[in-house]
Write a structure and sequence with these properties.
The chain has about 270 residues and is an alpha+beta fold. It has two helices and eleven strands, in the order H-H-E-E-E-E-E-E-E-E-E-E-E.
Length: about 270
């Protein structure tokens, strides 16, 4: 009977013991969790405190720098610049202005030189093209006074030229150089009288021409003069070489241009 009673008591005590152990373990876990949370909160608090302190320190340093800059500017405004500072600034400014002026002047000279050279080439091209075209059309017709005559500085002949109406007409033409004025001149007479001393018109073909030379080829050698007419039996030259020198307005620079024109002699 006593044994049964002890066994029953032990069975009744086991659930109570289990409850006590479970409660104790829960209390320990809660304590551990609270401790961990407290540690995290403490760390976060310390970090926040450090951040606040760093921000405050940065703010103080920024404020000090602002005060120092304001003091420097105020000091400069009140006291001005020293003579050495002014001289250095003026020297730097003078160097910048001089460099800019030099670059601009060099570019301007290069541009003007290019424009002048282009103008010379254009004048020479126009003059040579006109001379070449009219010499190549030179003829000797049945009129006994018709001839091709020329020396080293001028050439006269009868040629087909384009009139104002657009039709090619027979005309007396002469090219010669006015050395005093440096003009390449062109004389013409649309109603040929075969005089070769008087002309109806005299025009400036090109300006700034300092040299004009003619050479005449008879098929074997080049000659400085030529005189042909139907009476003498001497015909047109096989070719004519034209050489001219075009300079700038101040006669400091110039280029030499040369062309050989073939004539129809058959």
């Amino acid at each position: 009977m006593l044994c049964c009673t002890g066994k029953v008591a032990a069975e009744l005590a086991l659930p109570l013991l289990h409850q006590e152990i479970t409660a104790a373990m829960s209390a320990n876990v809660a304590a551990l969790s609270y401790g961990a949370n407290a540690g995290i909160l403490a760390a976060q608090g310390a970090a926040a405190t450090d951040a606040l302190e760093g921000k405050a320190l940065l703010h103080r340093q920024s404020k000090l720098c602002s005060y120092a800059l304001m003091y420097y500017i105020k000091d400069k405004l009140l006291k001005g610049f020293t003579l050495v500072e002014v001289l250095i600034a003026l020297a730097i400014l003078a160097m910048i202005v001089a460099s800019t002026f030099t670059i601009f002047r060099s570019a301007s000279k290069s541009w003007q030189k290019g424009e002048t050279r282009s103008e010379r080439y254009q004048n020479a091209r126009s003059a040579i093209s006109r001379i070449n075209s009219e010499i190549s059309q030179a003829v000797i017709n049945s009129n006994p006074l018709c001839k091709f005559t020329g020396d080293k500085n001028k050439a006269g002949f009868v040629s087909f030229v384009s009139a104002e109406s657009g039709v090619f007409e027979l005309s007396e033409v002469e090219f010669w150089l006015d050395g005093a004025k440096r003009f390449l001149m062109r004389n013409d007479d649309l109603d040929p009288d075969y005089d070769f001393t008087t002309y109806d018109h005299s025009d400036i073909l090109s300006e700034n021409v300092s040299e004009l030379e003619f050479s005449y080829f008879d098929g074997a050698v080049w000659a400085d003069t030529w005189n042909s007419d139907s009476a003498s039996g001497v015909g047109l030259p096989k070719a004519v070489k034209v050489k001219l020198k075009v300079e700038d307005k101040k006669a400091k620079e110039g280029e030499v241009f040369e062309v050989i024109t073939c004539l129809r002699t058959a």
